[in-house]
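Q: Make up one entry.
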Amino acid sequence: MESKCAHIIVFFLLATSFETLMAQKESDGPEVIELLKEFECKGKLSWPELIGVPTKLAKGIIEKQNSLISNVHILLNGSPVTLDIRCDRVRLFDNILGAVVQIPVVG
């Protein structure tokens, strides 16, 4: 019985992590960047190269590449967020394995 429960839990964890890796639409990035240009955010605005990178490492890279970023939030993919735009904030969405699953953008 314990073996079946362990297998079910492992399967659930693996299935959840693979689903989040495929959840991003490629069209999300450019539309967001155009919106941010309207707000005149300065510096680097997106980091597509950070997909799959551990979130704590990604946070350090973002803060180093854009000194105007003072709020880097690490959130589980699918977490609810506010829709306001802030030029000093980047949200890092990760999976249960702690890897970035969406392109981090200023906002």
Notes: The radius of gyration is 16 Å. DSSP finds three helices and two strands in the chain. The beta strands are 71-76, 89-94.
